[in-house]
Amino acid sequence: MEAGEPVHATTSPALDLDDIQAGALYGRPSPYVGTYLLLCIRDRDDGRDLVRRLLRVVKPAGFPGSPDDTSVTVAFTYSGLKALGVPQGSLDSFAPEFQQGMASRAATLGDVGESAPEHWEWPLGTSDVHVAISVLSSDRAQLEAVAEKAREAHAELAGIDLIWRQDCYQLASGRTSFGFKDGIGQPGVEGSGRPAANPRERPLKAGEIILGYPDETGELPPMPSPEILGRNGTYVVFRKLHTRVAAYRSYLRARSRSRQEEALLGAKMVGRWQSGAPLSIAPDQDDTELGGDPRRNNDFGFADDPRGFKCPVGAHARRANPRDALDGEGSVDVRLHRMIRRGTNYGPMLPEGVIEDDGIDRGIIFVFAGAHPKRQFEFVKTQWLNDGIFIGAPLESDPLVGPHPESSTFTIPQRPIRRRLQDLPPFVVTRGGEYCFAPSLRALQWLAGLGVRDETPPREDA
Q1: Which residues lie closer than 8 Å to 417 by C-beta, 6 or more apart?
Q2: Pair 73, 137: CB distance under 8 Å
Q3: Cα 172 to the chain's mean position, in Å?
Q4: 3-state DSSP helix/strand/coil percent for the chain, to nearest 5?
Q5: Which of 5, 8, 235, 295 is the most buried (most CB within 10 A)?
Q6: CA distance 132 to 35
Q7: If 0-12 CB within 10 Å is exposed, 13-18 middle and 19+ buried, where does residue 236 land?
Q8: For bias kind Basic and acidic residues, which ranges apply (predicted)?
Q9: Is 93 helix (H, G, I), strand (E, B) or coil?
């Protein structure tokens, strides 16, 4: 069999939770604070020493206690693996998108104009980004303690430079800078011990998220070689997005006769009310109790609303996850495009009611994890968010995050006459991004030059 060739699997082996980074698989506490660090490896030996030190603070998914505890996740870019001395044959075995990097994929992803790489925040999109570290915690004191351990891991190494830091947070309300509750519709993963947020959705096969296991096609997807490097790892998509909140609020207010209509128009664009209540269940007015109930706010589909009278077919949430709306179309299997999606805020919130831009940078850090970057993140971004062909509206993109060219529109089906919002400006601008790979703990040992060990490396309690 050729290296990287898919293998048909008839069984679903148990997830090796003691080898998978906890932060790559499990969710986050709510609320939380966090920080993202990007490092550059100037010296190979120091780079391997860095990995050896980071092993002390990375917890496996099988770590005793709550998976929502303070967590550290470590990932590498293609340039980072190369800087560590990974053999070229192994580098060539990674997914092409990962090898090329996000900046090289920008035109395909719709990152053009203001969102083009030449306007990205340095060092995002450059070959200087080698290591990405995220530290997240429900407690600021714990965050600082663990972040300090991560800093100590590189501070004494002259060949390692800290080149970028971004602090982030999630409010107790779980809302983003646009005011909508986020992080609601996560899929379940077989063997993770966590059910899907949607009770109507079966957990995904583990191979959709973690390499080395059968995916939804029943096959073992291509995996980086050697096996110790690829197995139990996952690809991580990292994007920093600036949100034009004032422009968004001004656009809605200018097209509404009342605050109630303004809230409805916003909900139609997103597919949910700000509380998180889905339009599919509460199409006419917000239901805060529904929005805050995790047992009900994901218990719905779109198949009973094919024309989008409750939730427009072009709404952001419906584009990002069509659920059962495409079940009748044999060429589309929504489950093949599902992935773990994490969003977090950066920058202060624009005060409620303000519609003038204060000039402060604010937005969302998005992280997507999955075993198939092309048919997961890139497919959803290009085919569902940027394009409207699959919903019969080829000239319309996602009203909230789409790359709006001139004369962008958004259609709201209603009786007797549909409403069409015209001239949508870009509400989101890409500030940069990276394709990363979060290796298993054994792979981290391998990268550190420690060799394959049976025992779990020592870790410090966080």
Answers
A1: none
A2: no
A3: 20
A4: 25, 20, 55
A5: 235
A6: 11
A7: buried
A8: 292-304
A9: coil
pTM recorded for the entire structure: 0.92
Closest C-alpha to 4, from 102, 96, 79, 84: 96
Which residue reads 């550059």 in tokens?
Answer: 40
67: left (phi over 0), alpha (psi -120 to 50) or beta: alpha
> Is the per-residue pLDDT at 6 higher than 60?
no
Q: Which residue has the tokens 């060219």?
A: 405
**Cβ-based burial of 109 (10 A; exposed 0-12, middle 13-18, buried ≥19):** buried
Q: CA–CA distance from 152 to each of 163, 272, 419, 446 (Å)?
A: 15, 43, 57, 21
SS3 461: coil
What's the CA gap between 211 and 6, in Å, rounded? Answer: 12
**Sole residue written with tokens 């009748």:** 328
Strand ranges in 340-441 using DSSP code E only, listed in sequence order: 340-346, 363-370, 409-412, 419-422, 428-438
Helices assigned H by DSSP within 242-391: 245-254, 259-270, 288-291, 316-320, 379
pLDDT at 30 (0 to 100): 77
Burial class (CB in 10 A: 0-12, 13-18, 19+), 356: exposed
Residue 193 C-alpha from the chain's centroid? 20
What gap in Å lies between CA 60 and CA 81, rounded to an integer? 21
User: What ranges in 255-404 are assigned the alpha helix state H?
Assistant: 259-270, 288-291, 316-320, 379
